[in-house]
Amino acid sequence: MGLTMSFFCRIPKPMTQQDKNVLRAIQYCGSQKKLAARMGCAQQQVSKLLNDQRAMTFEWALRIEDATDGHVGADELLPPLAEWRKGKCRKLATTRKRSESI
Predict the structure, then answer these.
(1) How far apart are CA 78 and CA 94, in angstroms?
(2) 96 close to 58: Cβ distance less than 8 angstroms
(3) Domains of the chain
(4) What is the pLDDT of residues 38-56, one digit of tens each?
(5) Which of 70, 73, 99, 101 has the most CB atoms in a 10 Å sphere around its CB?
(6) What is d(CA 68, CA 37) in angstroms, rounded to the nearest whole number?
(7) Selection from 20, 10, 83, 24 nearest residue 52 by Cα
C-alpha cells in the first residue's frame, strides 16, 4: 500500500508596485489597524488592498493619500489617476464634468 499525501502550501506572490505602496502607507501609520482608522474603514479592507483581494479604486487611493498626509500619493497607488489629474484622460474628465452639471 502506497501512502499518498497532499500538501497545500501557499506560494508567495511577488509584490507589485501597488503592494509596496500600500505597505509604505501601513508603515507610515504604524499598522493596518491604524491606517484603517485614519481611512475610516475596517482593518480587513486594508488587508484586502494589500493582498490584491480588493481592487484599488479612486476612492481608496484618495483615502490612503489623505490618511498618510500625502506621503503615499494617490497617483502612486493608481496611475490612471495621475493621467486624469494631468488632463490626459479626457474620457474621465468629460464624464465628471457632465455629472457635476446635472
Answers:
(1) 19
(2) no
(3) 17-94 (1.10.260.40)
(4) 999 999 999 999 988 888 9
(5) 73
(6) 12
(7) 20
Separation of alpha carbons 8 and 12, rounded Å: 13
Q: Which amino acid is at 90?
A: R
* Contact indicator for 78, 58 with CB cutoff of 8 Å: yes
Main-chain dihedrals φ then ψ at residue 87, nearest 5 degrees: 90, 10
Which has the closest alpha carbon to 68: 41, 28, 34? 28
pLDDT tens readout for residues 79-95: 887 777 777 655 554 55
- The per-residue DSSP string of 60-76 comes to HHHHHHHHTTTSS-HHH
- Grid cell at residue 24: 509604505
| pLDDT given for residue 98 in this prediction | 47
For residue 82, which amino acid is it?
A
